[in-house]
Amino acid sequence: MKTKGIAYTIFYFIGLFLLFGCKKQDVSPLPELIQAEALMFNNPDSALHILKTMPIPSARNKKQHALWCLLTTQAQFKLCLPFQSDSLIRIAYDYYRHTDNARRKAMSALYMGNVNYELKNITKAMNYFLEAKANIEKTNDYKLGYLVMSSLGNLYVYRNLTDYALEAFQEAYDYAVKDSCKRYEMTTLQDFGRTYSVRGEYERAIQSYNQAIQIRDSIHETFNSLESELADVYFALGNYEKALDLEKRAIKNNIAPDYYGIGETFLCLEEYDSAYYYLKKALHTSNVYTLAGVYEALLSLSQQPTYRQYMTDFCDSLLFYQDSIYALDKSETIIAYKEKYEHQKLAHRNQQLEFQTARWFLLSIIAVLCLIGVITYFYIYRKTMLYRKKEDLNRLTAQLNKNQRLMARNNIYIAELEKRIAENKEVAEQLEEQRETLAFLREENQTLQQKNAHLQTEITSYKSTNGATTITEAFNQLQLEKDQLSALLIETHPYLTALHQHPICLSNADRNQICQLADTIYTGFRQRLLTSIPSLSEYEVLLCCLIKLHFSVSEIATLLAISPASVSTSKSRLKKKIYTQLKLSDEKRSFDTWIWEY
Fold it and tell me: Which residue spans traverse the membrane (predicted)?
């Protein structure tokens, strides 16, 4: 009792140590983080302002720091700010992927995908989106589900996997409907329109864009240029008048006009003055990719006599911007790699400082835990050895009693078989089988006697009280008495005795009574048999019940009004059927013995 009290005291202090050691990590988010997350959906700029002005949580407080990194990345992405690396969101991702918070895991994986998509790491982005999809299915966050599937769909469109893109957008649309967010429904229909355009299914693209426009007008959105994108579809179809009408409607609705698209449309309509006017207006942009496209259109326009004088200038400008695009792509790649290297270098230095600070603290904890572990080990080892000794004694005693019970049951079967062989009530084939079974049972009893002698020697080598094996011995004695009682009931039951002495053909009522007696004496024998082999027929069940009640072949033949040879054949077929369904090998024991033991 004293040793047990010491052990409980040790475990109590371990629990207190772990409780107070982990308590600092299990805290609620900071108020600024809660406020920023609440503003994120409608006001990401305000959320980012709060995150930038608040004290950044220490990296030691991993939970708060991870949430700050996640929300900051989310706000920057919503505001379309550029990313130089994924190092910030990776902090959140590495923290949440080891937690059980499916929503945070999905969010961190989503923005890991978005950032890598912006950095042109397309394969990585796809893997993160798929991971986010797997986690979002475990939540009821429909907004987040829409964002995940929409991002995955756009990536599929980027890789020209339009079939997968349509499936992803359909799931995104379903999430938007569940969330009752009309803006998300509108955006998904816009994505459908873009995907159908890529596939060349322009009629379905037009239908999707028109549905998106209806939703946009119903919620009074003013910043979505659906008409401009729909105009591109009609432009691809060669319906330049309709495309121009849509571009004009976009301007009328105060949506930022696509001067480049309008200029190209006028160029196709051969209205060269208007084309020149709008293409010149399209030059008022800092996007070099747009400028290169505009000068390419102007160069095409200069084929006309009126504008041929500008051909050289347009050609030089086009070459200049094409060179600029090449240089820009190359320089951006170099800068991205350089900034990524510098950031990783700084992060590595910070990790080293944190490691040195935590090293001594961890070493002291390890020393205390090792000391506690050694004390606990010796206590548990002693208790385990005592428990194993008691278990071994119980196992040996249980095996000894089991063998004794098997020997007693075999003696009952031997007496039954000897009686049948002496009375010669079976057909020749059955007698030969029963003689083989009788020899096998006698040999098994000799083997069991030898094993019992060995077990008795092992048991006496243990110093233990009789109380450890009392329950096992009582159970085995009860099983033996049950077997003996069942055999006695068969021998003394008036109805069964009468049938053994004067067998007569059984009526339907007699057959039911036989099956009921088998169930009563052997505790639901018929139900157990049908549960194991449901395909047995009523005749086959009756035959099993007669064998269970120790009727011989000749007696069964009289009871069922068939020949002994037919009974023997039926038993052989039934044995094969049961052994096949239960996947039993053809053992030395006879089929009668198997039924008796079942």
Answer: 360-380
